[in-house]
Amino acid sequence: MTSKPKFRVDLIEQAHRALDALPQHQPQELTKAQAIQKLLGPIRAVQAKGYSLTAIAKVVSDSGIPITPGALRLYASGGKTASGAKRKEKVKRTDKQPAEARPGTPASTPNGARTQPAVPAPKPAGDSRSVDLGWEPAARSAKAAPSPAGSYAGFDVQPDEDL
After folding, report:
1. What letter would DSSP give residue 151?
2. What are the extents of the domains in the chain?
3. With left for phi above 0 and alpha for psi between -120 and 50, is residue 58 left, alpha or beta?
């Protein structure tokens, strides 16, 4: 068994001081989503002056950040995060009932076991648009006798024939 490496405390303190001495990181390039996030304050200020998102998108695009009015609308409305991913709407439950007691959820028995959901009622027999009500599964024609090759899921397997 190999032993894990150990480090002297003075080395850890030296690394700690070196990390603390680093200045705030200022990236030189940002993604489009990050750039628009940084511009949201000025964009909202210009909107307050009465400019449309189409006009704002044109100014931003002319400045070198190509963006459509629709994409700008998504960013301005909070539809996307700084990383470009769609935000998920949080759904707040107002009822305090457990999931099993709410309508539309499967019920459970007193011992906690889940029961099967109710089976929908069969269609009335009067609706015969696509169902042959006179069909009998036991009635087979003499032509459909089982073949020597065997049966597969209710169908008779027939050998290939050369024509």
Report:
1. E
2. 42-77
3. alpha
d(CA 16, CA 18): 5
Alpha-carbon 136 to chain mean position? 46
In sequence order, the β-bridge partners of residue 155 are 152
Full-model pTM: 0.40
Contact in structure between 109 and 115 (CB atoms under 8 Å): yes
Tokens of 145: 């006798």
CA distance 147 to 44: 79
Is the distance from CB of 149 to CB of 157 less than 8 angstroms?
A: yes
The answer to whether 69 and 53 are in contact (CB under 8 A) is yes
Per-residue model confidence as pLDDT tens digits over 50-95: 999 999 999 999 999 999 999 999 988 876 554 555 555 566 666 5
DSSP 3-state assignment of 77?
A: helix
